[in-house]
Structures are given as structure tokens and as C-alpha cells.
Amino acid sequence: HIKLNRPCFVSANSSNEVSVKNLEEVGKEFLFPLVTKDSVDLLIIGTGDSPKFISSKQQIELSEFGLGVECMNNASACSSFNLLLGDLRKVGLLLL
Questions:
Q1: DSSP label at 63?
Q2: Interatomic CA distance for residues 15 and 54, integer angstroms
Q3: What are the angstrom distances between the C-alpha of 80 and each of 16, 33, 44, 61, 64?
Q4: What is the pLDDT of residues 4-59, one digit of tens each?
Q5: Residue 14 exposed, middle or buried by CB count within 10 Å (0-12, 13-18, 19+)
Q6: pTM for the complete prediction?
Q7: pLDDT tens for residues 76-96?
Q8: Max alpha carbon distance in the chain (Å)?
Q9: Domains recognised in the chain with CATH numbers
Q10: Contact between 34 and 16 (Cβ < 8 Å)
């Protein structure tokens, strides 16, 4: 296991540290450059040791953007990301 000190985004072809610090900052403007680079259509958000969820306003904004979003704890998020990536899904992982 690797301990992360900063939030990061990972997809099939890239990984980047990101400036977002909490779930409330996750929105279309922040995500657009990350998810369009690899044509991500499903974003898994790891929210730390315990699951937290985006607001209904964020959910609507991101679904109108054409992006499915799932929030879960970091361990589950990493496992789900690896499984879906192995199935060649267009998935991205945001770890906060």
C-alpha cells in the first residue's frame, strides 16, 4: 500500500496531483480537463477512510456533463478502479 499525502487523479493513461482539497470542490470546471483527456465516462471518488457523498446539485451537474460518479472509501475506490480498468472501461479515479 502507498500512503498518499495529496489528492490525485488517475486514469488509464495519466496520473496527476490535483489542487482540490475536499469533496465540495469537485465540479464540472475542475473535472473537465481531467476527464476529457482520456474520455472518462465514469469517475470513482475515493473519500478517505470512510465514504462521503457528493451533493445532489453536484450529481446533477456531473450527470448533465455525461459523467457517472461513484463515491466510496479509498480502499474500495482503488479496487473498483482496477477492476473496471481491467475490463477496459473508461474510468477515472480521484483520491481525496
A1: H
A2: 22
A3: 19, 22, 8, 23, 23
A4: 789 999 999 999 999 998 999 999 999 999 998 889 999 999 999 999 999 999 99
A5: exposed
A6: 0.92
A7: 999 999 999 999 999 999 999
A8: 35
A9: 8-95 (3.40.1230.10)
A10: yes
